[in-house]
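re: ur question from yesterday

yeah so i grabbed the chain u mentioned. its 67 aa long if i counted rite. heres the sequnce exactly as i have it in my notes:
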Amino acid sequence: MSSKKTNRDHGKKKHHALIESEAMASHLKALYWGLYHFNVTYNKGKATDPVLYFSDPNNQDLGFVWA
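ran it thru and got these structure tokens back, copy pasting raw so excuse formatting
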């Protein structure tokens, strides 16, 4: 019986790790997407600091700063 319980616990840990990795992947995708937008703006000469760029109220749709 103890092996069945271990298998179930192991399955839960895998599921939990999968959720965490999906959330991490989502955050990394958002980060790369935001840096892409910053890079385009930087290359146009309209931005020089990514922190100021992401905190600008005009860029709130990028979702990096939560108020």
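noticed a couple things. The chain has one domain: 2-62. also The chain has two helices and no strands.
anyway ttyl
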